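User: beta-glucosidase, Kockovaella imperatae:
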Amino acid sequence: MWSVLRDSLTLLSPLLPVAVHQSPLHQIKESAPFVVEHEAPVSHGGAWATAFDMAADAVSKMTVEEKVNLTSAVFGPCSSNSGGVPRLGIPGLCFDDGPSGPRYTDFVTQFPSPFFAAASFDRDLLYKKGLHIGKEFRGKGINVALSPITGGPLGRSPYAGRNWEGFSPDPYLTTQLSGLTVRAMQDSGLITCSKHYILFEQVEVCKGPVVNGQRTDCQFPSVEIDDKTFKELYLPSFAESVRAGTGSIMCSYNKINGTQTCENSVAMNKIMKDELNFQGFILSDYGATHSTVPSARNGMDMELPEAQYFGDNLIKAVKAGDVPESRLDDMARRILLPWYASRQHEDYPAPNFQKYDLSDEFEQDGMVFKNEHVDNRGDGHILARKVAADSTVLLKNDGVLPLKGIRRIGIFGSDAGAPPTVSGCGPDLFCIVNSERRYWNGTVTIGGGSGAAYPDYISTPLEAISLRARSEKIRIDQYLQDDATHFESIQTVAAASEVCMVFVKVYLVEGWDRDNLRLDHEGEKLIKAVEKSCAGKVVVVMHTGGQTIMEDWIDLPKIAGVIWAGYPGQESGNALVDILWGDVNPSGKLPFTMGRTESEWPPSIIREEEDETYPRSFFTEGLAIDYKWFDKYNIPPRFEFGFGLSYTSFELSHLSFKETHIQLNDTVQQTNEKFAGKADLYNVLWTASVNVTNTGEVAGAEVAQLYVSFPESEREQPPRHLKGFSKPYLKPGQSEVVHFHLRKKDLSVWDVKHQMWVVPKGKFKLYAGHSSRDLPLTLKVDMQETR
Ligand code: NOJ
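Assistant: Predicted structure for beta-glucosidase:
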């Protein structure tokens, strides 16, 4: 079995696996002489030409020690700090997580997680969110945000514990949101770090005992992947981040076909720095550096969070000639380039907070750091509430919502109320985790680990619903536990409620993958117990970080409403109230597939063979992940990708397609990707359009979706790919024509033999509709010319 699999991978993959398997990189010892297979070229920075010159000039005045200082971590107040060159007035850089707001500190807005916010399918709104988060980072003096998560994980496996930090397993949606988030955050003057490069899909296999709540003896898997899957599925979102001008990239913990990512010359030098023409710096995830010479020579530019392999070891390696000084110059210049390009040398606040610590002053190693409690939140809470409300996905509604004419509501589940502490949980927000399962005794607004940010307050569902209920003269009663064994109490509250709202959750946290796709705390039992005795109808609200099996309860007679409220951030309750009472018409659409049983997803198990020193994960499903897998194998999902209900109805008509030639003004850095034909890979060569009409009785927004099938000759392609979306807001009876711009790359496939992007000749099929399975309009397009 294994040999068959590995042969087919090799056959399919003339570039990546062959280059990596045959390369000496994973066997290299630091003392052994070796050949760098791919030198990363210097292209003078493209749009950053002036900054490049400034960086090169500064580097030319530095000693080896000073240059190494830039590449290595030093002690400081931030999540990590790199060294500076005080003699030349160049400060070190302050790095901090993460995607939902600055982590570890106070007076920040805790925004919805990216996976949930992706459900809004709203480019303008998410641009505003990115820009606002960027300004909060800047206010704290953070030079580099370790964010966004641009496709690592992409979300191949529903079991991955960190999918909620990224956008969506659909590569088109993730490329779109990666590019615009990098642009938005950097428009605040910040430097972004697109992560985790690359194939960081599941976390780790841990065999050891649990110590202080953490499992030990963890090994990250090696991802075994072919060239086509790499180029078409996992790389495009990083390409968009580079095009949008991301200043840095974080190399990930896993291996690729046996070689550590942070010392992988193919991934870093050849693909990232040459093919994608990335001019900024690659920094290592914390602890993902495993060597000095191979890491430096194969493309890593900075080691975080400590100078274990760089620092003095790098100085020695340069002086011994094992790392050429020209390569050190390149590292230093790459680090300074985005700093100059973002004009941080002109005006940027110094770090004014202390990680982990919210007190006013903090002393360590004889240094005193002050927390100035800088408050750059402004109207962040209003934006956070809008993002959460516009991302909320209404999955089931038999007419119970929006709420009207009711006088008694029962609220059930610990997820409705406040957690006992927030920052008291520590930076990872998981002190209320017990060692067997991860339980959070209060409402889940965000997951744990690097994707978390402290909320300065939480609008809990109980608080927000109670406030609204007071003004509507509604009686509220509650049972804020998950334990359905106190059946009598549940029964008493439920029997007195016209609407029973059950709050359930799945709390995900960095460092753990999921054991199963069920609710935490056996939430299913709570739902069933409430359903049994509720006097009226049951509405289930799920605060889950991703795919959740609902089959035990969703078809029970009194389950009248189901809402996916994701990880909504600090404005959780207020945003939910907006939806429950119809102040905001739900318009969120699932950015992933909800299946019916766990066995329906591709097998994503990480394998450990007796004779191997590290676990391996075989990406044999190729391009068919999430809805593409369900479509390929004709599996009916419970709720498909792109699905979400509204309080109104929409109709699509008049799907059309025409050739265009538009150059979008969205590129900071051109890539060197190879392609057939003359027109640029990122020019819009075609435009599809469709008419959207609100046929119902209330105003609302609809995500019109465009899917494409490639010609039949492209046998590896799954049945349909999302290639466009647009979200018009329409009053009842109003219509609007929306346009889907198709760039050359959007209709290209990676030609493994010729190593280039090619638009295949033949019949494409276009589909327009309301979700990946509700596609009323189709159109055939014959492509015979290479443009
Ligand atoms: C490890 C995580 O994988 C990464 O995402 C994060 O940026 C660093 N820790 C710093 O917290």
